[in-house]
Amino acid sequence: MKLRKLIYAGLAAAGLAAGPAHAVELSIVHGAIGKDNEVLRAELDRWEKQTGNTVKIVSMPESTTDQFGQYKLWLSAKSSDIDVYRLDVVWAPQLADHFVDLNEATKDIQDQFIPSTLKGQMVDGKLVALPMFIGAPALYYREDLLKKYDRPVPKTWAEMKETAQIIQDGEREAGNKDMQGFVFQGAAYEGLTCNAMEWIASYGGGNFVEPDGSIDINNAKAAEALNMAASWIGTIAPEGVLNYKEEDARGVFQSGDAAFMRNWNYAYALVNGDDSPVKGKVGVSELPKGGEDGKSAATLGGWELAVSKYSKHQQEAIDLVKFLDNYESQKERAIVTSRPPTLTAVYNDPDVAKEQPFIPLWKPVLDGTLARPSAAAKRKYNEASSLFWTAVHNTLSGDGSAEDNLAMLEAKLKRLKGDAW
What distance in Å separates the CA atoms of residue 392 and residue 144, rounded to the nearest whole number? Predict the structure, then answer.
């Protein structure tokens, strides 16, 4: 807490400058979870003090699917109500026409960013958005319970299921009737796409759209992965997990009622917060493999900042985006919210390593993440993802077998693709 106050004070002192003669009011739309809005508001307050401008946060629902739908409405209407948009890492190819090209405005700082984060926001040579933070999921586990039941950190999904069952049964017998073995994001939305991509890739089943645009998701390894996940429902995972998003899973795990959780980096700061019942009892590792011959697969996440072409204050909005992505802001975000930065240098910052040792240790995982096929599916990505998560959700719910659902999915994806994406 002292370090955070020092950061805030130092940044405020460094940012004191005369405001502009004609201040403007900006709006930033920001779908947030955890401590995201708290930190953003503090950063905006400093920018306001530095520039004399003001910024209003337009909050969004947790579901990225709902956010994308609202964004499309605003942008299709060419609304000037929103100046800066926080975008999911996969949205650039679909929304590129609506945003300012940031290449010229950021050419002096682009070499400070992890190259892959910028590459993912380039569409036909246009820099659609400036990367704000990266995301990659981890397997969160209760260190104390693994020790209690003398179990190692699981390396495969089968080992995870076995250990989760042992812990769940043991804790329920000891009196905790609410204990679950494993919680994850099982609702029918983009979060399930991320989870299911990891399961399938860990078994060597490919992706629902391959990098070259081909479709080969109807295969035995993909079916094996989905059958494995379906076996969790009603055994080590509650049936309610079929409606869980990120915060639902975190709520169960942080309350002390789950042995394992799949979630993004942001959850690390929260489950280890001063008010967390499981503080000091949580470890993280890479996600399990699909078997001894499988591999760990983690979906690339992250959020970016883009400036609307319809903004009446584009220069001020660009300045705000650069401020929110500078070293000091990314360092603060890393410490307070455990969001991995997009600036290479922040990973070597000693304060970050001290306060959030999770972040520098996680950079190898971030370097090898699994990209969603937005570049291959282009403007049809969201529809393709919706077909995928629906097929997966049906399988988890017992509505058809994995084999049948994958066969139908492949046929639908091929129709969606047509002659080309």
Answer: 33
Alpha-carbon distance of 50 to 55, in angstroms, equals 12
For residues 269 and 273, give the distance between their C-alpha atoms in angstroms, rounded to a whole number: 6
Which SS3 state, helix, strand or coil, does residue 354 take?
helix
Cβ 131 vs Cβ 339: under 8 Å:
no
The answer to whether the beta carbons of residues 207 and 262 sit under 8 Å apart is no
**For 235-265, what is each residue's pLDDT tens digit?**
999 999 999 999 999 999 999 999 999 999 8
pLDDT in tens, 187-233: 999 999 999 999 999 999 999 999 999 999 999 999 999 999 999 99
The closest alpha carbon to 95, from 74, 61, 72, 116, belongs to 72
Nearest to 237 by CA among 308, 165, 189: 165
Q: Beta 122-123 vs 84-88: how paired, if at all? A: unpaired
Q: Which of 180, 204, 194 is nearest to 298 (CA)?
A: 194
Q: CB–CB of 102/321 below 8 Å?
A: yes
Q: 221 vs 45, 144, 158, 230, 293, CA distance in Å? A: 51, 34, 15, 14, 12
CA distance 386 to 30: 22
pTM: 0.87
Strands 84-88 and 25-30: parallel
Radius of gyration of the chain (CA): 22
Beta carbons of 314 and 103 less than 8 angstroms apart: no
